[in-house]
């Protein structure tokens, strides 16, 4: 594409909410002029889409490869929380993400992670205190404080939490929130602590409380948590306070679509086209003060060309005046990515995950497909030779978490319902937020084999049947692959298919759901490498009760 070119079509102006025939002239990567024109083509030109909150690491791709996949769907920018790699590698991980993202024509806005580790109740690979967070916020290329997951600490105004929030406020940078289930007076108190946004609402009543408290809402539709259907009515109620985000999107889902899919769904339901597009394009740019063009004269030439505003098929994507995707094909060339990592866990035996049955009442996690929140139930364990054992006929499986940051140690174990495995096991070193190895299995033997496959790869995801173990290695921090996105998406889909077709999982996204079973900051019951944890009480609980 030459440094100077022109395109005509129907141009979307999200400020004055118009669609008008015009000719757009691009020079040296910026919009030089937008001139009225007659007899233009039927195509529509509009600003590119922005994911208002995403953990790039959850795509299992480094930023440079994520960009290659995302531009195919009209995404030109992301507001990215590098919290996942920071929990493994600390500041070095954040710097890796920024440096890798700079290799490609795409706008990555990486925040300063606010909660590393997410809680003191698990083992992470690093810790970022207020001084480290402030130092990151001093950087011009770190425009915001990432999600404040310690919402109890913010509500109680705990000193370390407030020091991080105030560091952002002192630098004029926004603060992202994370407050699942927080409503009413607590939502008011959380917002008053200095929190600007939230993406964790799973009911519209909760989101309304947060809007009333002054927060903006990022409507999330990811690979695990899907809140679009519940929250989209807010587009009629509070359109100026909404954005769209994916939060966590696995590689197969990213290959299929991104924010463009949410825009199409909202338009198909009859919502005002400008309200929809402002949520998808304008609001993230203005809220985070991103250097991303909005199809105005003088802006960076970041825009997309679609066939029309009904089908909204992305024909071409431009970043800084460069054609980066056309007709579903990426034009961004692959770059080399380093593979920093921190993984020292050793192999485990089936005996290491055995659970002595202490009483005839056992506390069990209940996983819900496409949700991060879990439930809790009490069941009578199935007991063999004095040990509580998995019982697939009762959908009673064993869950294990292995500390990846020490060579030896006893796995933490619990029982779980909802995965539906009839045989075999799944394991993953993508395990929010500390990214220890999490595994679910229908037998101790299968559980150990799945875990050991991840250990042998020094990070990855695995599926173990009676006859084979399949693995997707993730050599970058145990979170991301160094392979092309097409390869990663295909391999991930193969393992997902194995989990469903061969091992019996009834879940739409078993690996994504598994990755959140150690996420202590999302209620209700979760498992860390240190034990069973009640996310409502924010305390450890006993597995067996009288």
Would you write up a description of this structure?
The termini are far apart. This protein has 2 domains: 48-290, TIM Barrel (Alpha-Beta Barrel), CATH 3.20.20; 350-540, no CATH class. The strands form 7 sheets. It has an 8-stranded mixed beta sheet with strand order 3-2-1-4-13-14-15-16, with helices on one face. It is an alpha+beta fold and 546 residues long. A hairpin with a 7-residue loop joins strand 13 and strand 14. Helix 12 (259-268) packs antiparallel against helix 13.
Give the key terms.
546 residues; alpha+beta; TIM Barrel; eight-stranded mixed beta sheet; 16 helices; 30 strands; globular
Number of domains: 2
Strand order of the largest sheet: 3-2-1-4-13-14-15-16
Radius of gyration: 23 Å
Mean of the pLDDT scores?
Answer: 95
What is the C-level CATH assignment of the largest domain? Alpha Beta
Number of beta strands? 30
The rough form would be described as globular
The CATH superfamily of the largest domain turns out to be: Metal-dependent hydrolases
Write a brief caption for the model:
This protein folds into two domains: 48-290, Alpha-Beta Barrel (TIM Barrel), CATH 3.20.20.140; 350-540, no CATH class. Helices cover 27% and strands 26% of the residues. It is built from 16 helices and 30 strands.
List the helices and strands and how they pair.
Elements: E1 4-13, E2 18-27, E3 30-36, E4 44-47, E5 49-54, H1 63-70, E6 75-80, H2 83-89, H3 91-101, E7 107-110, H4 130-137, E8 145-148, H5 151-156, H6 159-170, E9 175-177, H7 184-192, E10 197-198, H8 204-212, E11 216-220, H9 228-231, H10 234-237, E12 242-245, H11 251-256, H12 259-268, H13 273-288, E13 303-306, E14 314-319, E15 322-326, E16 329-330, E17 355-356, E18 362-367, E19 374-379, E20 383-384, E21 387-388, E22 397-402, E23 412-417, E24 425-428, E25 437-441, H14 444-456, E26 460-464, E27 469-473, H15 485-502, H16 510-514, E28 525-528, E29 531-534, E30 539-540
Parallel strand pairs: 1-4, 5-6, 6-7, 8-9, 10-11, 11-12, 18-23
Antiparallel strand pairs: 1-2, 2-3, 4-13, 13-14, 14-15, 15-16, 17-21, 18-19, 20-21, 22-23, 22-25, 24-25, 24-26, 26-27, 28-29, 29-30
Helix pairs in contact: 2-3, 4-6, 7-8, 12-13
